[in-house]
Amino acid sequence: MKVKQNGTKQGLQWIINGFYLFRCSPVLWIILCGAWLSFAVILSNLFQFTPVANLPFNIGQAVFTILSPVFLAGLMTGCKALEQDKNLEISHLFRGFKENTIPLITLGGISLVGAILTFSLFSLIAGETLMELLLEGKRVNENELKTVSSNMLSSTLVALVLYALLMMATWFAPLLIMFDHLSPYEAMRLSFLGCLSNFIPLQIYGISLVILAIISSIPYGLGFFILIPTYFASVYSSYKAIFVDTSET
Questions:
Q1: Predicted TM-score of the model (pTM)
Q2: What is the spatial distance between Cα 198 and Cα 103, in angstroms, rounded to a whole number?
Q3: How far, rounded to the nearest angstrom, does the alpha carbon of residue 37 sit from its chain's CA centroid?
Q4: 236 Cβ contact partners less than 8 Å away, ≥ 6 residues apart
Q5: Who is most buried in 64, 94, 110, 176, counting CB within 10 A?
Q6: CA separation, residue 104 to residues 83, 111, 149, 170, 228 (Å)
Q7: Read out DSSP for 204-222?
Q8: In terms of residue numbers, what domain contains 36?
């Protein structure tokens, strides 16, 4: 696989391409995305009183994090089917449970461990007082406020940097595992390089999605029925633009 550097305007083009894929089968797209989100809500509610150690999420959310690459890879096979003028099917959502399942679950496990380590480091830098303020709403006096404010800034900056690095390493990894049969480590390495090489168009892509999310929320959030499927399809579009299979060329 070869990483290709794209122009700045491509960030917006990926979203447009994603909308074209959504337009090919809008009803099924809404059903598939609704099923995925419903699964996340059900898991969270079933285990909402079963936290993972002292972390701010429960077992259900941890399980969903591990399985997310599997579902995402399935949706991406649906994008590939539409690109090849085939039909989008409900079964595409579960395709990751039939192909490359172990590497995808391993990727999900790595993502979970990365999130836990990031939160743990955040907690360590933040200190006990700040964590009690954030998680339990504990009141602080004037003497503690200066320390808490300083710790909040430094811990937040560290957490944001670590989380950004984790996102870069896992953003395209499910697709690289599903379509190119790479190992989780190699997929994460290439995903990181792909994001790093296309940092500016990805910033345009992210800013555009934020603006579209604000617009989508105005008519009672109805715009998200279009934006969420478009977002998933745009991930596939950006993957196709950034990664080139050298064996085919």
A1: 0.88
A2: 25
A3: 13
A4: 18, 21, 76, 79, 80, 83, 175
A5: 176
A6: 23, 11, 39, 11, 22
A7: HHHHHHHHHHHHHHSSTTT
A8: 2-244
pLDDT tens column, 33-51: 999 999 888 887 776 655 5
User: Does 142 reside within a domain?
Assistant: yes
Considering just the CA atoms, what is the radius of gyration of the chain in Å? 20
β partners of residue 243: 3
- Residues 121/123/127/131 CA torsion (nearest 10 deg): 170
Contact (CB, 8 A) for 217 and 115:
no
Residue 195: count of CB within 10 angstroms of its CB:
21
93 alpha carbon, distance to own chain's centre:
16
Distance CA 239, CA 180 (A): 11
- Among residues 173, 177, 163, 209, which one has the least CA distance to residue 194? 173
How many domains does the chain divide into? 1
Residues with Cβ within 8 Å of 72's Cβ and at least 6 positions away in sequence, in order, are 96, 174, 175, 232, 235
**Residue-wise pLDDT tens digits, 139-158:** 655 566 566 666 777 888 88
Q: Is residue 249 part of a domain?
A: no
